[in-house]
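Page 47, continued from p. 46.
Same chain as before, 323 aa.
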Amino acid sequence: MEKLNGAFIGRNPNTIKNVYGEKNIKRLGEMCNMKGFFNGDDVSNGLLEDVDVLFSTWGMVCFTEEQLAKLPRLKAVFYAAGATDNFCHPLFSHNIKLSSAWRANAIPVAEFTLAQITLGLKNYFNLSRDMKNFDTFKKGQQKAGCGMYGARVALLGAGMISTHLQHLLENFSVEVIVVPSHPDRRTISLEEAFATSQVVSNHFPDRDDNVGVFNKKLFESMKPGAVFINTGRGRQVNEDDLIEVMEKRPDLTALLDVTYPEPPLEGSKLYTTPNIYLTPHIAGSLNDELYRMSDYMVEEFERFLRGEELQHQVQPSMILTAK
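Result:
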């Protein structure tokens, strides 16, 4: 069987190298005739008219109708990253298959959040900040959190990150409640989740209707010693409200891996409020974790070559019904 022609496409060849790595670039070269790296202008200039499959990651091109006319043989796109909303629709309209590593990218976020839940329920973050002298260290256990056993953990969102995190939490004696982002799918309200949980972890999708939904009223209702975790999107949090409540409630903890804007503006109280802890958007795939995403797409391409059902194909219905 004659090999298919393939190519990498995106805005930056270094991003491709960082995600695919030498191993997967070599594997793809063995599986098909790889032409190299190209960008949107190359497509417009007709350099990929003989290409059957494309491989990409962050920086994927959203093709115009004119560009798609220059890709007459394109059958499938394999995207070694997560969300495809910004470029998927032209591919759908031309019946070009699209697979994404969204499941792979969910894994490190869920693992990161699990670690924060475990430590947060011990009040680790506030305790570690305070254990700077003999007296505070000696009294430290008096401020320890409730721990994992029997704690209620609210996961906001019912997408892949939340789903994987639910599986991880099955190994612990915690009560997990899930609050889908669409109100009509909820059996538990946001108000109940915030008011009754020791940990509230945000995994809402990045939709306009979710902007600012986490507000003063919700933060004020949180249980003594509760923890709020945000690995979703910064703009979903009313940060002024959060800061105000955290200043009044030193018993609470906020762990923010995302903010809005990102990074926070110089002088923001997010930097200086003692019980707010910032990390620089590290929950998702970084460094060696990036290779997992290209592993998923190379394995998906192997299934494509064998004529098997694709495991990570993105369907139009998935975009319309994102949780």
